[in-house]
Amino acid sequence: HCMLSDVACQLLQAFFRVIGTDFIELKAHFDRPTTFLRLLHYPKRRTDTTLNYYGSAPHVDFGCITLLMQDQCGLQVQGPAGDWLHVPPVPNTFVMNVGTMLSRWSNGILRSTAHRVVNDSGRSRFSVVFFYDPHMNTEIAPLKSCVSKARPVCFKPLVYRDFVRDQLRATYIH
In terms of CB atoms within 10 Å, which of 3, 7, 33, 58 comes out highest? Predict the structure, then answer.
């Protein structure tokens, strides 16, 4: 868990460097990050299951960075044209998704990765997912380095905990 936090933090620092922000300005928000480590199981799909059945329906992640290890095919990401692309598993590697908070901080320069899981492997599928997010009390607003006359502010400031609460409420209402 600690090693995953280190990897995610280094990736985050690289992203902030690319968008022209010194991570030092934001480091305090990650001194006590919000992290989740989940083992996900997608049961073998029954033959009588409809074709639009998802192990995980299309969505984007809430936070900043998601690191994923998968044992077999099933993960798909949405391409720029809206098509779904298979993400084949590569041993000893992570798949990384950008989450909504990183997209908001970057004023949309970095886009949240829409993804889904379709388990048509004919057997059970597992993945290990690590979510690396700022502290729940962090206010997220577009960074100055990502705002210009050509790229005006796209997002209103919000507090991360409020966003997570609203997303969870919306998810569980349905």
Answer: 33
Q: Are 9 and 111 in contact (CB under 8 A)?
A: no
> Residue 63: helix, strand or coil by DSSP?
coil
CA–CA dist 134, 64 (Å, integer) = 7
151 pLDDT above the threshold of 90: yes
Distance, CA of 51 to CA of 117 (rounded, Å)? 12
The Cα–Cα gap between 110 and 140 comes to: 14
CA distance 84 to 58: 10
* 44 secondary structure, DSSP code: P
Report the Cα 143 to chain-centroid distance in Å.
19
Return the percentage of the chain with pLDDT > 90, whole number: 63
Residue labelled with tokens 């507090």: 159
Spatial separation of the C-alpha atoms in residues 79 and 86, rounded to whole Å:
10
Nearest to 55 by CA among 115, 99, 128: 115
Query: Mapping DSSP to helix (H, G, I), strand (E, B) and coil, where does residue 34 land?
Result: strand
Give residue 48's pLDDT. Answer: 66
pLDDT tens, residue by residue, 37-76:
999 888 877 666 665 656 677 889 999 999 998 877 788 9
125 and 41 Cβ atoms separated by less than 8 Å: yes
